[in-house]
Amino acid sequence: LALYFHSGEREEKCIIEDVPSDTLVIGNYKVQRWDIHKQDFLESAPGLGMFVTVTTPSAEVLLSKLYGPQGTFSFTSYLSGEHVICLQSNSTRFVAFAGSKLRIHLDIRVGEHFLDESVVQAKDKVNEVNSRLEHLIEQIHHISKEQNYEREREEKFRKTSEETNSNILWWAIVQTLILISIGIWQIKSLRDFFISKKLV
């Protein structure tokens, strides 16, 4: 997931990432500040920090840390589900004057284990091949976890759909019984009315 979004200073922006359990999540970000004279975003925002907070599906804070204007954060999920990742600048200016527009570039990678470049560039080909194999095995484990998580979500969705369909069927039966009862009552009322008026 790679994106950028605009934010005001001290304004908190959050994204939701659906993550399987026991999965490494790595986020890279860069903050640019709007320059009113150049009418463009500066390449960097020196002196400005970003406060990163990650909340689990059970509303537990998994990560809460202050970083610089450009940085990398990471966490490992222990629960499957929607993790909320929030970023907020820590402008030191007064709130009334902290109105600069910021552009935040964010790149989130789920389940990736990066190869150590020093190992990749090593002359020892056996170590390089071994390292690449370990990386591939980690990727296979991640794909397997993703598939299991998607299977669990699909099963949960199917159960919910079946319960909903069952409820709809019972509601339709109840509605039909009510309509039949009202019809019988109306016929009986009309019959009694006609008998009382001696029309029948």
Automatic annotation (TrEMBL):
List each copy of the GOLD domain by range.
12-110
State the source organism's domain of life: Eukaryota
Q: How does it sit in the membrane?
A: Single-pass type I membrane protein
User: What single Pfam family name could you report for this chain, choosing any that match?
Assistant: EMP24_GP25L
Keyword terms of this UniProt record: Coiled coil, Endoplasmic reticulum, Membrane, Signal, Transmembrane, Transmembrane helix
Q: Which residues cross the membrane?
A: 168-187
Q: Which residues form a coiled coil?
A: 119-146
Gene Ontology CC: endoplasmic reticulum membrane
Where does it reside? Endoplasmic reticulum membrane; Membrane
Q: Which family does it belong to?
A: Belongs to the EMP24/GP25L family.
Descriptive protein name = Transmembrane emp24 domain-containing protein 11
Instruction: Name the species this protein comes from.
Output: Eudyptula minor
Q: Which gene encodes it?
A: Tmed11
